[in-house]
Each structure stands twice: as C-alpha cells, then as structure tokens.
Amino acid sequence: MGWYRAIKRLFLIEGGRARIISALNMFVRQSLPIAAVQVVTCRSHDRSYSNRDVETVGQPARPPHEEQWKSTSIYFLVCLGTVLGCYALFLSSLLLLRANDNLPPPIVTNNLCFDEKIHWMSYELPSTAPDLLVFGSSVAWRHFDGGQAIESGLAKNPYNLGFCGMRLSQTAFVARYFLTKRKFQFPVRAVIIASPQDFEGCPSSEEQVFSKPDADEAIFSRTHGWELYLKNVDPVPFVRNASAVKAMRSGANEFNRLMFTRYGDGPVDSTKSRDLTYGPVTNLKQECFVALKDLAQHLSDHDIQTTLVLTPINPQWLSMFDPDRRVLNEVRSRLSEALQKSDVRVWDASENKSFSELDFIDAIHLRWSAVRRFMNAMAGFKCT
Amino acid sequence: MLFNSPEFLLGLLPISLLVFFCFGVMGFHRAAILWLTGASLFFYGWWNISYVPLLLCSVLFNFVIGEKLRGGGSRSWLIAGVAGNVVLLGYYKYAGFLTEVISDAAGLSWTVPNVILPLAISFFTFQQIAYLVDCRAGLVKESSFLNYAAFITFFPHLIAGPITHHKEMIPQFQSIRIFRPQPLLLALGATIFLVGLFKKVAIADFLALFANPVFNAAANNQPLTAIDSWIGAFAYTFQLYFDFSGYSDMAIGAGLLFGIRLPQNFSSPLKSTNIVEFWQRWHMTLTRFITSYIYNPIVLSWSRWRVRQKLPLVQPGRTTLGAFVSLVLVPVMLSMSISGIWHGAGYQFVLFGALHGTYIVIYHAWREIKLRTWPAGSLKFPPGRPLAIALTLVCVVLSMVLFRSVSATAALHMFSAMFGANGIVVPQGVANLPLIGTVVDVLQLRTGKQMFLYSDPLLLIGPLLVLVLIAPNIYELMRDYETALTTKSTKPEGTFGRRSLSELRWRPNVRYSVFIGLLAFISVAKLMSNAPSEFIYFRF
Q1: Partners of A136 in the beta sheet?
Q2: CA dist., res. A149 & res. A132, Å (int)
Q3: Which of A39, A48, A89, A217 would best serve as a mutation to test chain B binding (most B beta carbons within 10 A)?
Q4: Do B517 and A38 lie within an 8 Å CB cutoff?
Q5: Phi then psi for A366, rounded to 5 degrees?
Q6: Are residues B469 and B392 in contact, defined by beta-carbon separation less than 8 angstroms?
Q7: A-chain residues within 8 Å CB-CB of B480?
Q8: Residue A35 pLDDT > 70, yes or no?
C-alpha cells in the first residue's frame, strides 16, 4: 500500500507523471534489446493514445540474437537472389522473343512505332548523305514515297525522318537532333508534312521526345541499342508490345503496320478503312506554330530549301468536324503569320479535290495507292 | 532528394546507415546522432542547398523558444513562437495566394509575388508548433539541441511526414538500442521500404498515365466525356493513394533501418465505411495534429462557454440545433478548411477542405438522425456496409478532383464533364456487348472513340480496387512485430485462394523473401530505367 500511495502522490505532483513514464521507458530500454512494451506520454485529448499510457504489443517468441542474424541474412540473400534471377529470366526471355520475331524494339521514346523506326534505322542508315529529308508526324511517314520522289525528280536520295505521334514541337526537336548528325547534315531540301492535329497541345516551342544519348546508342552504335533493353525497362508496355509487334511487322495488323521502304517511308497498303479515328481539333496551340517558325528559321540558316505540306484531309472528317472550315482557316491563318518572313514554300493540299473518302483509311492517313497521286501532285507543285 | 531516386537508394541511405552504425557500435552515440542530422540536412539540401539555413534557423528558433517555455516562460513566448512559425509558413506558402485573393476581391491588379516554397516547410513547421505547445504544457523534458535537431530533420519523415511528436521521437534518439544494427528491424524496415517503393514506382507512377491527360484536358477547357473524366478521377484517386501510402511506407521502413519507429500514417483508408473513419485512416498524423491542436481546443473552449451559459452540449440522439452548429458544424468546417489550405495554396484546396468538412457534418447529422429514428442497434440493413464503403469512395473520388486540378475553374470543368455536361459517349466495343448494347439503345447514348483504350485503365483500376478493399496492408501483415508506432490495425477480411486473409502473417522466411525480391526487381528496374513515360498513342 505504501508503494501505491507513493506512486499516487508522484502522479499528483507537477511533472510526476512524466517522471514515472520516463523511469518506465528507461527500465524497458535497459531490460530488452527490442522494446516489447511501448511507453508513451500523452495529452488527455490526444485520441491516438486515448485511455492507454502503456501499450503492449504481442509478439512471437524471439529467437536468440545469432539466430536472428542468420535468418535475416538468409532473408536478404534470397531477396537479392530473386532480383538477380529475375534479371537472368528477363535476359532469357529477350533471346526467346528474338528467336520468335516477337522482340519489341528497345525503348527510346516508349512509343512502339517510333522506337521501331529508330531500331530499323540502326540497320538501314543511308550510305550517302540524303539530299532531301522528310520531317513530320505519321502523315509524313505514311505519305511520302521515296521511290516515287526519285522517279518524279523531286530528289536523288531522299530519306524519311517522319515519326508517328508527333506534334510540331516534337518534330522540331527531332529535326534538330538529326541535323546535327553527320549522315543528315547537308540536305539540299526538306519537306515538312503536317496535319491540323499536329498543331495541337504543344507545351513549348521545342519538346524533347527522347534522351539524345539513348538515341545515339540505338541508332548510331554498332550494338543497335541492346544495352537499352536493360537500361530502359517498362514492363507493361514491353509485354503489350511483345504480344503485338509481330503482327505489325508482318502486316497482319494492316492499319498499324510497321514496315518500311528503303527510304524510311511507312506505307499502309490496305484496301480497308477504319472509322475516322480522329475527333475534332480543339486545342490548337500557338507554341506549335512558333515551333514551326523556329524550325523553318533553323533550316533556312543551314541553306536548306524547305516546303511545308498541309496534308490531304478526308472530306468526311471535314464535313463532320469542320463544316464551315473554321479550324482549317485558323490553321492557314496562323501558318501564314508564322512563316511570313521565311522562305518556306507552303503547299496546302488539305482540301485537294484529287482525293476522295476512298483514298483514306481514317481522317488523315492516305492508303499507299493514293500516295502515288499525292507524290505526283507534290512534284507538280515543286515545278510551279 | 527523393526516396525513389537512385542517389538516395544507392548513395545516401546505405552510406548514412553504415556510418551511423559504425559510430554507434564504437560507442560514439552523440557523433552518430550528429552524423544522422548531417545526413538529413544533406538529404534536404540536395533539393536546394540555399534553403538549409532556413531549416536550421527554424530549428534553432523553436528550440530557443521551447527552452524559454520549459523554463516557465509566459504565454506570450508561446504566442511569439507560434506566430513566428505561422508567419514563416504564411510568407513562403500563402503570400502569393493571399495577394491573389486580395487583388481579386478589391479589383486591384497586384502582381503575385513568385515565392519559391521551401521543401517540407508545412511538415517541419507543424511539428515545431506542436513542440512549443507541449513545452508550454510541461510535457517536454528533453533539453539537448542535438536530439531536437535530429527529431525535426530526421530524413525519413522530413519531406512528407509522418508528422511526429517529440514524445515519440526523442526517447528513441536517447535509447542505446538504436546504435546497434538489429537484424529483425533491418528485415522489417527493408521489407516495408520495398513495398512502399513498389507502390510508388510501379503502381502510382503508372496510374498517372491515365490521370494526367484527363486533368490536363480539363485544365485546357477541352470537352471531356463523362466516362473519360470518371476514369481520370478514379485513376488519380488511386494514384494518390498508392503514391502517398507508398511514401509513408518508405518513411517508416527507412526509419526502422535506423531502429527508429515512426507513427503509422496510412491504414487502408479506402476500406472506410464513413468519412470520419476515412480521415482516421488517411494521413493519420495530420488528422491527429488537426484534432489535437485545432479541433479539440475549439470544441473544449466552446463547450466550457456553453456550460457557463447553461446551454446544452452534444448528446447523442438528443443534440439541439444550437449545440450541433456550435460544437460540430463550425469546429469541423474550420478544422477541415485549415486542413485543406495546409495541403496547398489555392481556391481548390480551400474547396477541398470545405467539401470534406461538409461530408463530415453530413455524416454527424445522419448519425444523429439515425439515433433518433432507430434506437441503437435496431436498424438492420445487411448491404449497408458495402454501400457505405462505395458511397465513401465516391465522395473521396469527387474531392480528389479538387485536389488534383490546377485551379478551381479546371475542377469545375472536370465536375461538369463527370456529370454529363459534354455527354456520355460509350466506347463502341462496350456498346456492342449484349446487355450494355440494349441499355445504350434505350437511353439513346452516343457511341464512339474515347481518350483511352479502355482495356488499359479499367483492367488496372478494377483489380486495384479489389486489392485495396480486401487485401491486408503491410502493417496488418506484420502485426506480430513492432513496425510503426500507433498502428491502427483491423483484421483483414476476405480470402486469398483457400486461405482467409486474416491468417496471412509476414515472417522473415524464404517465401516472403522471394515475393519481396520480385517487387524489388520490378521497382528497381523501373527506378533505374531511363524510359520515358509511355505515351499511349495507338493511332498511327
């Protein structure tokens, strides 16, 4: 009872409660290597500790210290072994996928069609410097026929540097990157092919699409970017791409074909069409037009004659999403404003009557059979 | 520096741990604490070294005021100390916003000052305010500046919490047990850290791919369809859930590696059956702070005033309107608005807090109505629990729109899209399904293309929803061990295969080691990867 009264008195004097708890804490720390009893001071209104100053945590019986070290060491070793094993499994699966032609390209931009073209380029770089370079998005990649360009006298050695899915700010980045490379440094001419969709959503006038060292590694090294499989890992897209890339390469997936001509063009050789796919253009950005202006200036500074082509657009899309041509006129107006002080020639083929709905596979992409006419018209424009 | 950066994982963490234990084992305990503080300041300074002096000045200022208060300093010292912290936070975090508010209200064209927000200022300021209040209340006995500096700057909790109390931390820094490596704590800490890393790197960052385009479109005032905007809102809610809980896990795991236990900050909040429970499980240490230092003092003082005026207090089932307004509605709205504005400076954060305050008030009102209509326990409604969870989840998802939006205008645009202002467009593939096709026909809904390939976000969000609703969290799995302080543990429900989830227990054995190794492989591969975010462009 004496003890009880003493403790009670201690509780009542100022700071007594904290002293008891401090003493308990010291006792606990001294008695156990890992405290099984947690002692905390608390405010009366602190609900996380409400009605409990001493909290007991039930634990399984602890093995001796040496045993704990042993089991923990095994735990960490197995963990490390699993990580290394996973890497070994990953490398084996790369070899297996390669053997079955299901191996996706190494990740540079994490866009399958972009990365596939980069991978293709690492094997098919031009032997001599091209005299004509094509820049732009998928409409540049899909709508230019290098063979036809040679036939019609547009170029002697063209090379298509159009990559899918790019807006103008990204095209500007890609064009500048390739123009620093020896292989692509001195073209006579450049053609930029764009659709109204390419002028949407640019966050700035130049937008990085890939890491330049990664692109150097993937395109210009002798290893064709094999290291990138380990360096740039993104499992979900990788698995998805591995399941889809074979059909794209063989042409079985005809709308998303990943086949290339020797000039880097990407023909869509299908007789079928998909729906329009592209909705209304709602987000035209001034930064895209500034990107084009800056790119035009850059090309001009390097004495490269530049032509901007506004690609043909499916009449069905025009009647559905731009019946009064507000969008198209807005693009035209901003284009002429952006390029007024440059020597870029602009060919507006957006409403070219030579192309009917049947020539398109969606809102903006021409099928390969129509590209021939498109190239002839381009050659005609060049001669005027 | 971030926990999920290679420089932290391969540099600062192992080096600081090794040197700390070297000092500790050799018996240089003060040197070990000094090293830990130095490493924490390095961790902080990695972001911007010019703000390290600010942090140090704040620590020194509060320690000096704390010493005055401990020595019997008057209430004015406390007011000066709290005011100093509030002014610091106000200047760095709210100067721009306040200028904007005053400028808008008065129709002035003031230039909003561009003040850079120092990292973690909200966290270390709140911790130090709590310290000063506790000093004044006579609850602080520690007088070592080194331990105090280590408590405030300890890098595992410095950047994003948990918000700790001195009474939880300082006794641990004084304990000799932390200076020797403890095998079990190393295994526990590393496991919790790796689980958190996986949540952050492999899940949260992936979900951002679906949330960002939707919220960017809303910010650009683009017409979003209802399904797109709901997918974006759900994706963001899960992104934030895994991001924040992952970060909290990493903080607790890193702390355990040093033998220091931090309070739990997250406890499966999406399992909550009401909004009050949600706040008891989401950012638990912030809720604890708001409750202890804002809500409770307000309610206590107003309760005393009402008692003096002989006015009734809150009595379950018999609360008067006056008591409800003064002791529930006003304190809740005030506390939650402060909580909202603490998260960020902007109208959207004020609205976020106010919306949650409204939710909580509605919940209390409903509880009162329920008690009056159905005396305790007489209301039986079996599907009530899943319905309550679903309702709470939807309320949380709606509030997260405010949290993520760049402005209140963008949030309103998003809300209008979610409620069908731009129409409901059903993906063609979905509309072709037998039953859904009939519904689409009957309701005459439009069909067409959406922003995403729906298989991607739906196949991800669906399983994640199931996971967060039935799976035990890491603290429940490790409930046989001491992990975090103040763990809020519930018995896991549901089954995993033929086993009840409540039977699952973590042990440092081979099975869990392989599992954690797998998570580590995915996380490290993603972390070390230079791969840009996949841009989901499927039309080429």
Answers
A1: A162, A193
A2: 10
A3: A48
A4: no
A5: -85, 145
A6: no
A7: 58-60
A8: no
A76 and B520 in contact by Cβ < 8 A? no
Residues from chain A that touch B528, judged by Cβ atoms under 8 A, are 231, 233
Distance of residue B138 Cα from the nearest chain A Cα, in angstroms: 7
Kindly report the CA angle at B396 between B395 and B399, in degrees rounded to 5? 90
Residues of B whose CB is below 8 A from A72: 183-184, 186-187, 508
The pLDDT confidence band at residue A44, using thresholds 50, 70 and 90, is very low
Chain B CB contacts of A59 under 8 Å are 480-482
Provide the shortest C-alpha distance from residue B536 to chain A (in Å).
7
Q: Which residue of A has its CA nearest to B220?
A: A283
* Interchain CB distance below 8 Å, A233 and B525: yes
- Nearest one of B35, B39, B41 to B60, comparing CA atoms: B41
Chain B residue numbers with beta carbons less than 8 Å from the beta carbon of A111 are 534-535, 537
Question: Taking CB atoms and an 8 Å limit, are A138 and B518 in contact across chains?
Answer: no
Contact B529 A79 (CB under 8 A): no
* Tokens 């732009």, located at residue: A136
Find the CB nearest A232 among B138, B139, B529.
B529
Residue A190 β-bridge partners: A133, A306
Are the beta carbons of A29 and B177 separated by less than 8 Å? Answer: yes
Q: How far is A276 from chain B (nearest CA, A)?
A: 9
Three-point CA angle B219, A286, A196, nearest 5°: 95
Q: Tens digits of per-residue pLDDT, B68-123?
A: 888 877 888 999 999 999 898 888 888 878 887 788 777 777 776 677 778 888 88
Catalytic residue IDs of B: 343
pLDDT digit string, tens, across residues A337-361:
999 888 899 999 988 888 999 999 9
Is-above-0.80 flag for pTM? Answer: no
Residue position matching structure tokens 């207090």: B313
The first and second tokens of residue A69, run together, are 């070290």
Question: Residues B230, B418: contact at Cβ < 8 Å?
Answer: yes
CB-based contact A14 B138, cutoff 8 Å: yes
Using DSSP's 3-state secondary structure scheme, residue A347 falls into strand
- State how far the alpha carbon of B262 is from the alpha carbons of A278, B166, B248, B506, in Å: 51, 11, 10, 19
Average pLDDT in the A12-23 region? 51
DSSP A165-220: T--HHHHHHHHHHHHTSGGGS--SEEEEEE-GGGGB--SSSS---S-HHHHIIIII
Q: Is residue A214 a contact partner of residue A177, using CB atoms and an 8 Å limit?
A: no
- For B417-472, what is each residue's pLDDT tens digit? 888 877 777 766 667 777 777 887 787 777 765 655 455 667 778 888 888 888 88
DSSP secondary structure letters along A114-146: HHHHHHHHHH---SS--SEEEEESHHHHHH--H
Cβ-count burial B215-247 (b if 16+ within 10 Å, e if not): bbbbbeebebbbbbbbbbbbbbbbbbbbbbbbb
CA atoms of A278 and B540, how far apart (whole Å):
11
CB-based contact A211 B223, cutoff 8 Å: no
Alpha-carbon gap: B296 to the closest alpha carbon of chain A (Å): 7
Tokens of A25: 């804490």
Please provide the DSSP assignment of B281-303 as one string.
HBSHHHHHHHIIIIIHHHHHHHH
- Residue A229 confidence (pLDDT) above 50: yes
- Residue linked to tokens 């000092």: B23
Q: Of the ranges A92-96, B137-141, B427-431, which is most confident? A: A92-96
CB pairs under 8 A between A and B: 169
The pLDDT value recorded for residue B488 is 54
